Automatic annotation (TrEMBL), chains A, B, C, D:
Residue ranges of domain HTH tetR-type in the record: 6-65
Transmembrane portions of the chain: none
Database matches in PROSITE patterns: HTH_TETR_2 (PS50977)
Origin species: Amycolatopsis ultiminotia
Record's keyword terms, sorted: DNA-binding, Transcription, Transcription regulation
Top-rank taxon: Bacteria
InterPro entries linked to this entry: Homeodomain-like_sf (IPR009057), HTH-type_TetR-like_transc_reg (IPR050109), HTH_TetR (IPR001647), Tet_transcr_reg_TetR-rel_C_sf (IPR036271), TetR_SbtR-like_C (IPR049445)
UniProt-listed Pfam families: TetR_C_43, TetR_N
Protein name per Swiss-Prot or TrEMBL: TetR/AcrR family transcriptional regulator
DNA-binding region: 28-47
Amino acid sequence: MRADALRNRSAIADAALRLAGERGEAVSMEDIAREAGVGVGTLYRHFPDRRALLEDIAVDALRELRDATRAEAGRAPAWEALLRIVDHCVALPLSLTKSLLTDEPERAELPELEVEVTSLIAGIVADAQREGDLRADVPPAEAVRVLNVAVCRCGARADDHLTRVVLDGLRVPKNRRPPVWRGDEGRGEGS
Amino acid sequence: MRADALRNRSAIADAALRLAGERGEAVSMEDIAREAGVGVGTLYRHFPDRRALLEDIAVDALRELRDATRAEAGRAPAWEALLRIVDHCVALPLSLTKSLLTDEPERAELPELEVEVTSLIAGIVADAQREGDLRADVPPAEAVRVLNVAVCRCGARADDHLTRVVLDGLRVPKNRRPPVWRGDEGRGEGS
Amino acid sequence: MRADALRNRSAIADAALRLAGERGEAVSMEDIAREAGVGVGTLYRHFPDRRALLEDIAVDALRELRDATRAEAGRAPAWEALLRIVDHCVALPLSLTKSLLTDEPERAELPELEVEVTSLIAGIVADAQREGDLRADVPPAEAVRVLNVAVCRCGARADDHLTRVVLDGLRVPKNRRPPVWRGDEGRGEGS
Amino acid sequence: MRADALRNRSAIADAALRLAGERGEAVSMEDIAREAGVGVGTLYRHFPDRRALLEDIAVDALRELRDATRAEAGRAPAWEALLRIVDHCVALPLSLTKSLLTDEPERAELPELEVEVTSLIAGIVADAQREGDLRADVPPAEAVRVLNVAVCRCGARADDHLTRVVLDGLRVPKNRRPPVWRGDEGRGEGS
DNA sequence: AATGAATGAGCGTTCATTCAT
DNA sequence: TATGAATGAACGCTCATTCAT
């Protein structure tokens, strides 16, 4: 009985993940249930409501990312750890998490995980800066934000070109002075 | 009444723009009408249906961008023209246009404008490559795609840091050989 | 000014008549106004609301029918007068009046006219029965009801075949005893 | 639950039938649902949209009529079979079917049933003509049309008097020559 | 525990009616 | 006075959620 229930639970989560990826996060609960091969009732037995289901998926993805990130933390060169983390991210449906994070999630885990993942990565960024591979004129938190936006908000399938270009933009060229960050940033929401 | 009607029309378009920006493009027509300070009926007098309203906003934004881009085309240095165009883009809600363009828009203008804007920018990119400011190993169309994704799909408020980093990634460093595009690109959907 | 107003009024009534005939009585006020070549405001200046407009048309039609019926009353043979009245009816959009009459009309004229027209025709029917042209076993009021239903509720264009068959059913054959009305009528809503 | 669902389905169909009969076919879905004692959602679970509901009712009515007509076909005297069929018709809300048939129904069954019922009745009419009970100068198809109009378009509750008079108009008087169809029909859409 | 029928609030849209011009 | 823009109640329909089986 437990085994069945578990199987159902993950069938539902998988179905939600798949459909949300394919058709946007507006998929209906009915469709998710059908895709999972269960009735809506079963879906609601496992997840009290739509938000809970979506948050659950997001939590799973973030946990996976946190674990991967923890495994990379401290490994040198940090630059390459960063590359591996990005590679890892692009396989996760992190795009889902954004709207959930801005929207006052029910599960406290969600912002906690975000904070944890963010600071883990910021640490790796700082390491890479210290190792001279990442331009030092970008505060680590900003660099993480840039990476995050690039990887998570840019469509379901991460765009390699974009990712590569962003990383190139962050990287310190090996054989010259770090590029000067252009001017004073002016009108943005602050540098 | 003409003056009032015009005022209403743009109040509605503005409201739609603002709310679609803030809360995603799933805003309800009622909310848009309320935000604009009119009744739903008025909204529907000006825009026959939801799609028409959204497409209208997108067309306005694309037209503005096309005009700005035309004005920049041919100006040297192309690199700086590109910077100005990006600056222009970040103020526009181009994120809206994406789903409309993929979804078989009713208004033929929409894909036409996209093609026009895209090739105008590709021309400027090619100029910048010829002028030695933009790495030549990225095909102009790809560079435009990267910029587009960076600027249009990355949230309602464009992120200056991201933009700058992307541009830095595209730029040819002034005083050294162009960086070698890392390896063979491997697993992406093609370089 | 008065002339214009009158012209507008009848343009609206005509348009309503035409459209209600063509597309059923669910035509929108906007469409009627457009067909009449005026704005909705003008329509509402002449007719306080939709019901008033429809009732007005019905009153006009009934008045015309009353006048025609008055002119026929007393003329012999009554049977032929009846034929002419039916011919007259088929040109009128009396179908409209039914729902208005059952629905508690605002204008008292409407049921009054109906009563008047009905009893005028009943008189002619009675004459025809006296003259031996119409079967005497149908109460005049019933005969009128039958004619009314046949002519008014059977579609926009009156159906000659139906009308003729109904009249043949009512007519006393010239050279034989009146047919006996079949049995006792039994289960109907009363004979 | 199957039993309940079936009960609901027919409660909805019955309610729709009743209300469409009483108040015309413009009844709102909400009203139908309320009359059936269910929520709108339930209504829509059983019938995908308004048209489907109406067509369903019409199909049911036509099927019932077809079965009754088949049972009568070939029975002598055909004239009495016809009477029974008419008796049957008046109990059905066939008036609904007219607008559905003119309006390109979704369900192909609808026009098919109409053709079948129509030709079955035309056969019975022809039999009645052969048996000398129905005037031979009316083409069977026309006679069916007349009956159809009389029975179906003349209000929700069929009018016995009308029906009887129409049938009398169609009937061959037992003891005299068939009446001559009056003149040449003149201005109609052709005799 | 699983099912899917039932529910009803809410969305997009229409249209009779009002009112500013 | 004529216009047509504005209004909002009401409609057809969807879907997250509940509940009887």
